[in-house]
Amino acid sequence: MSLDSLKSSLPDYARDLRLNLGSVIDGSGLTPQQLWGTVLVTAIASRSPIVLRELALEAQAHLSPEAYTAAKSTAATMTMNNVFHRTRHLLSDPEYGTLRAGLRSNVLGDPGVGKVDVELWSLAVSAINGCGACLDSHERVLRKAGVDRESIQETFRIASVVQAIGVTLEAEAVLGE
Fold it and tell me: What does the annotation say about its assembly with partners (predicted)?
């Protein structure tokens, strides 16, 4: 299944998702590496086997092997970080914020691709996983690096579309309609 096949597999009631997938990919102002890395990390974060299988193939065709691996590493590490920091943030006791995390995230320090790309990918995964603390942190780093709000928003637009497609296709698979 290609990207077009993925779009055509969406039911008619979700035609807006089909159109939005086309617009976030075809009309992207991100670099190809930023775009396809964002597509890959959000497909992973969506937890949809259908979406991941198809979008990973597309991403792999557009990314260098190093960028493909860096995106997968970012998705894995950010999923762990999102659960940890979201939980720490949601707990009423602020003392948890003073404790050492004790979690390794070395790949984020030396991912093999540009820091801005990893920050954009991290923000996209954090959007899907709903970690406000991580969203704020990565947005601050990106803004400090000179990334404009439009580019930052584009990453979470991609995340929202990919997540919605995953939910919709998984629901259709279960409902069998």
Answer: Homotrimer.
Model confidence pLDDT, tens digit, residues 110-137? 778 999 999 999 999 999 999 999 999 9
Can you tell me the distance from the alpha carbon of 17 to that of 30, in angstroms, rounded to the nearest whole number?
A: 20
Q: Which of 134, 147, 161, 164 is catalytic?
A: 134
The answer for residues whose C-beta is within 8 angstroms of residue 48's C-beta and 6 or more apart is 165, 166, 167, 169, 170
Owning domain of residue 68: 3-175
CATH code: domain of residue 171: 1.20.1290.10
User: How many domains does the chain contain in total?
Assistant: 1
Active site residue 134: yes
| Catalytic site residue from 120, 124, 125, 131 | 131
pTM beyond 0.85: the answer is yes
**pLDDT tens digits for range 3-48:** 888 898 999 999 999 999 999 999 899 999 999 999 999 999 999 9
CA distances from 27 to 35, 89, 91, 172 (A): 10, 35, 40, 28
- The DSSP secondary-structure symbol of 50 reads H
Quick check: is 131 catalytic? yes
